[in-house]
Write a structure and sequence with these properties.
The chain is an alpha+beta fold. Helices cover 41% and strands 15% of the residues. The longest helix has 18 residues.
Length: 237
């Protein structure tokens, strides 16, 4: 039986879901209250300039690669990425900032300028963050989500202590410099969480930041929406 599926809203998850459902041979229709798709990913056009007014950070490029690969495509088939160098700067005052480069070596140098010797615990911290990234982003997030037991694996059991500690506790134990600690604590904000009550296992966000880097699509983040929309239309959505 050829089922028809209706999806309300057209954000990233809705567009992605429509692609997978269409690939299964289902008839998929998306309903959106706005004139354009994208959900919270929107743009403002004013005086010849274009501003992203939704998501502005392109992290975890491997996730996007995996999504498009599921359909025999690549992100570059739909949009062009630039790795930002520097990735960003963190301001503590008008003329007081720490600049985060596009490689871990550059970031280590920035940390050393702020506090001598801090690059040693930083490399160790990011190494652990990569281990968690490989567990979480390359495996756990692709589980179907039908049972909490999906999160219990041989790998996560070994990380049990990181589920009872917090990002803030782990960061502050290794980094006494408040400015450096604040930089390492902020990535979990993208999860809508606070470092004070987020399990330290989620330090994989730090690997996404320092290990993989920050990218930006030419034309703005909305180009990603346009890309997924184009793919969905190719699939018959």
């Amino acid at each position: 039986m050829n089922y028809s599926i209706s999806i309300l809203g057209s954000g990233f998850s809705s567009l992605a879901a429509s692609c997978y459902l269409a690939k299964m041979g289902l008839n998929v229709t998306i309903f959106e209250k706005n004139s354009d798709v994208g959900g919270r990913a929107r743009q403002l056009h004013k005086d010849g300039f274009t501003f992203d007014i939704g998501p502005t950070w392109y992290w975890m490029p491997d996730v996007f690669e995996r999504f498009f690969n599921d359909f025999g495509k690549k992100p570059k088939d739909y949009y062009h990425l630039q790795k930002l160098n520097p990735a960003y700067s963190v301001y503590f005052g008008k003329h007081d900032k720490i600049t985060i480069g596009d490689t871990l070596d550059k970031i280590c140098s920035a940390f050393e300028q702020e506090e001598k010797g801090s690059s040693v615990p930083l490399k160790k911290f990011i190494g652990k963050a990569k281990e968690n990234y490989d567990i979480a982003i390359k495996d756990l997030v692709y589980k179907p989500g039908v049972s909490p037991l999906e999160l219990v694996t041989a790998q996560t059991i070994k990380k049990l202590g990181q589920f009872v500690s917090t990002i803030k506790r782990d960061v502050r134990r290794e980094f006494k410099n408040n400015r450096l600690a604040q930089i390492l604590e902020f990535p979990v904000l993208f999860l809508g969480a606070k470092p004070s009550n987020t399990p330290s296992f989620y330090n994989f966000m730090n690997y996404a930041d320092f290990g993989l880097g920050t990218f930006h699509p030419e034309g703005g983040m909305y180009e990603v929406i346009n890309g997924i929309k184009a793919l969905a239309e190719e699939l018959g959505v």
